[in-house]
Amino acid sequence: MFKVTISRVFKRTEDVMSFQFSKPQAFEFLPGQYLLVSVPKNGKVLTKPLSISSSPTEDFLEVTKRITGHEFSNVMAELRVGDEIFIDGPNGNFTFKGEYPKVGMLAGGIGITPLMSMMKYCTHRRIQSNIILLYGNRSEDNIPFFEDLNRLAKDNNNLRIVHTLSRAGDSWKGRRGHVDSEMIKEHIQDYQERVFYVSGPPGLVKDCVQHLRSLGVIDERIRTENFVGY
Ligand SMILES: Cc1cc2nc3c(=O)[nH]c(=O)nc-3n(C[C@H](O)[C@H](O)[C@H](O)COP(=O)(O)OP(=O)(O)OC[C@H]3O[C@@H](n4cnc5c(N)ncnc54)[C@H](O)[C@@H]3O)c2cc1C
Fold first, then answer.
1. Is the pTM of this model over 0.90?
2. CA distance 147 to 115
């Protein structure tokens, strides 16, 4: 368990906030791992798992939280620069640092956080793995990390990102609807050659795994991170 001091807090969208803090000495993690984050509330301590949205190649740690209006979110949303929180970890084996030559990533909403760490890592380290991300959100102004994703795709020729929106406005020129088997077939034509990383709230992960299975992708090629708690 480490005590860390918040160095930066900011909104990524209307209901998504990022929290940055310094990396404790000798703290090491793999892209995709998560922390147990503990915050004080009226004399008790609230603890939740949160994926690390920064990359091991960056000199700070970052977690990114969807602010739901529930107890843990409310405390997180009140955090300011200089506040202290506790972190424990790193935890988890939903990790990627270039082990596979071809990867497919399927994410919805806040499920992007562990994948963000992986994509930043692969870009910064010039990893040659080819990555295609299919990313579903509600609307244009609701896409966490939109600018960061654009920048990564520009900097990394091996990374392609396709957005889809379930409630897009009239001006949206991209794809509409959820990540489904049609979208996978259209945008990841070599899906049988890829290892898939699926991340997000449990319902979305379940649906995406079903879509992959319906296309004949075997379970050994599907890795999942379930954001239990949503
Ligand atoms: C491995 C892993 C990684 C994760 N990574 C992330 C991440 O990167 N970002 C992220 O945002 N989330 C992540 N999550 C989910 C996160 O841990 C939380 O569970 C989730 O964000 C819900 O947070 P909350 O603020 O709504 O929590 P809570 O305050 O605990 O609310 C959760 C639910 O509990 C119920 N509840 C809470 N308080 C009350 C009350 N007083 N009375 C009745 N019901 C109540 C509500 O139904 C609510 O929907 C991850 C989860 C896992 C397992």
1. yes
2. 15
Length of the chain equals 230
Query: Ligand 1, residues 47, 48, 79: which to mutate, most atoms within 8 A of Cβ?
Result: 48
- Residues 216, 107 share a domain: yes
State the residue range of the domain holding 12.
Answer: 2-91
- Residue ending a domain, among 38, 71, 91, is 91
Is 146 buried (19+), middle (13-18) or exposed (0-12) by CB count in 10 A?
middle
pLDDT per residue over 172-198, tens digit each?
Answer: 999 999 999 999 999 999 999 999 999
Q: Which two tokens stand for residue 113?
A: 């956080």
In a domain? residue 73: yes
- Interaxial angle between packed helices 146-155 and 112-124, expressed in degrees from 0 to 180 and rounded to the nearest 10: 30
- Give pLDDT tens digits for 135-170: 999 999 999 999 999 999 999 999 999 999 999 999
Nearest protein CA to atom 27 of ligand 1, as residue: 72
Say whether both 77 and 37 belong to one domain: yes
Q: How confident is the model at residue 79 (pLDDT cuts 50, 70, 90)?
A: very high
> Is residue 217 situated within a structural domain?
yes
Q: What three-state secondary structure class fits 88?
A: strand
For residue 162, being part of any structural domain is answered with yes
Residue nearest to atom 14 of ligand 1 (CA): 227
